[in-house]
Specification:
18-stranded antiparallel β-barrel; mainly beta; two-stranded antiparallel ribbon; Porin; disordered N terminus; 22 strands
């Protein structure tokens, strides 16, 4: 993650946001996340992520690296080629099938400052996964944070208009899935967010519309659209401490009448403690409820209430070494059931500059239980553990050419038959900055 800083705006109240120079593409799935259909907690996560992205993009644009420049427009294009070996491409509990995957990819990062405070930015990564033995699995791929963003600052207001999209056929990104041949999902999230900086009080509000399209025929019943609203009010009670309240609402409508349409609401509080420039401690806790509209032709389900909690710690120990820890409890919409309740732990670390090597390591652990109606088996509920861990090691071979080695292991264990699996993925990548 980028290290975010802020400084006093010379034009008056408010902040002028900066960030270090650009991020570069890391192959091998460095950010192994547990994806889900959008919900209230997903809306809040999207909003917090969007704020981080916006803050990261509000940099001093003259520091943006580039290999194409036209006026104030700067564009960085980085093509790469990778080769992965996957020992269980269908996440099967028995008779796993392996394959080699050729992965050409092109990363585009551009910035166009219209004024000192109004910036248009683009970040898109497009690739193709060519399975050498199982060609039916071959498909296009989009970088998870691909999108277009427009930042506008008007006095004390900071606005961001955005459209972010991703497409992947990696079923291990969804912890609830197991023993399926393929699962492709395209998500497009467009919306607007605003922050009103009043000094010691900072309200924020965001709205997003998300379309989720499953490209695998057997799962087309999951196609849906979601309206997401997030509101927060932060109070700076100390120069190093901000506390506040947050609330979300999400309304999901499915194209087919197989899964119940629903509304999700949550309310809670949060604290941000920054004792120094390199350490941040951010706990959150609240209450969430799901209200189902019983639109399914296959069964009704009961409304569900639950509490959520999240504790995130980020610490940059030195210029070379940093880590983060994210742990908590959440409830989200399921993939093959109404909802999933889970405890999670997601630590990661970054080690840069050691003999020119850059290392990133991560781990994701989830203990989860499915709740409510299941649309494949009657009276089916599942408890499972999901573990994903891996690393990426990169090295600059020469000024414009870098190489990386990555490895990922995913292990799923379940109390239901034929829903355990282990998958190992190892690969190399060469990236060339034009």
């Amino acid at each position: 993650m980028s290290d975010l800083t802020h400084s006093t705006n010379p034009h008056g109240r408010g902040r002028a946001w900066t960030r270090p120079v650009s991020r570069h593409h890391l192959a091998g799935g460095l950010a192994l996340i547990v994806a889900s259909v959008a919900s209230g907690q997903e809306a809040l996560r999207n909003s917090l992520t969007e704020q981080s992205v916006v803050e990261a993009q509000r940099q001093q644009w003259e520091n943006q690296p580039y290999n194409i420049k036209a006026g104030d427009l700067k564009m960085l294009i980085v093509p790469s080629i990778g080769l992965d070996y996957n020992d269980n491409i269908y996440i099967s509990s028995s008779n796993p099938q392996s394959d080699w995957i050729l992965k050409p990819f092109v990363d585009f990062d551009g910035v166009y400052p219209l004024t000192e405070h109004n910036v248009l930015s683009l970040s898109v990564g497009v690739g193709y996964d060519e399975y050498l033995q199982h060609d039916r699995r071959s498909d296009w791929r989009l970088k998870s944070d691909s999108g277009l963003s427009f930042d506008v600052q008007v006095q004390d207001f900071q606005f961001n208009l955005h459209d972010r999209f991703t497409y992947s056929q990696d079923p291990t990104s969804y912890s609830a899935l197991a023993n399926i041949p393929e699962y492709g999902r395209f998500n497009n999230t467009a919306g607007i967010s605003t922050i009103w900086d009043l000094g010691d009080v900072v309200p924020s509000l965001s709205y997003d519309h998300q379309n989720s399209i499953v490209t695998t025929k057997d799962f087309e019943y999951e196609d849906c659209s979601t309206e997401m609203l997030v509101g927060r009010v932060g109070f700076q009670i100390h120069p190093k401490v901000t506390t506040g309240v947050e609330s979300t609402a999400a309304f999901t409508t499915y194209d087919q009448k197989i899964i119940n349409d629903n509304a999700n609401y949550s309310v809670g509080g949060y604290v941000d403690w920054k004792p120094g420039a390199y350490f941040q401690f951010s706990p959150r806790v609240g209450y969430s409820t799901y209200v189902f509209q019983h639109t399914s032709r296959y069964g009704e389900t009961a409304d569900m209430n639950s509490w959520y909690a999240d504790l995130k710690v980020t610490h940059k120990i030195t210029d070379m070494f940093s880590y983060s820890i994210d742990a908590g409890r959440e409830t989200r919409l399921g993939v093959q059931s109404d909802v999933v309740q889970s405890w999670f732990l997601r630590p990661s670390l970054n080690w840069t500059g050691f003999h020119n090597f850059n290392t990133t390591a991560y781990l994701t652990f989830e203990n989860a239980t499915t709740q409510g109606q299941n649309y494949f088996r009657s009276n089916f509920s599942e408890k499972y553990d999901y573990l994903g861990a891996g690393f990426n090691l990169s090295y600059p071979i020469m000024k414009k050419l870098s190489a990386s080695l990555h490895y990922r292991i995913t292990v799923r264990s379940s109390n239901s038959a034929n829903r355990d699996y282990t998958q190992n993925v190892v690969g190399i990548q060469l990236a060339y900055r034009l």
